[in-house]
Amino acid sequence: MFTEKVRSGRERTLLQTGSFISPGYYGPQGARRILEFVARRFRDEILTWAVENRLSAKGKMPFLKSVVVAKLVVRPVMEDMAVRGEEAEKIL
After folding, report:
1. This model's pTM is above 0.70
2. Is 84 left (phi over 0), alpha (psi -120 to 50) or beta?
């Protein structure tokens, strides 16, 4: 069912908002902007992955929020705070 929705183009909820897992340092607004960028930039890849990967049936947005966004903000935090990766992750 999910596969058919994605293939037919009916699954268009990539930017649907929900409860955001905030990457601390940038707050909820920063998390939302990063998530929107990732969703737009990698839309086709995400849709392809969603069709091919059974685990994504539970939701691509929770993965993007908790893993991709969290990892994307590490580098700017490292630069802003002049710290290494592990320390930046603690800040987040």
Report:
1. no
2. beta
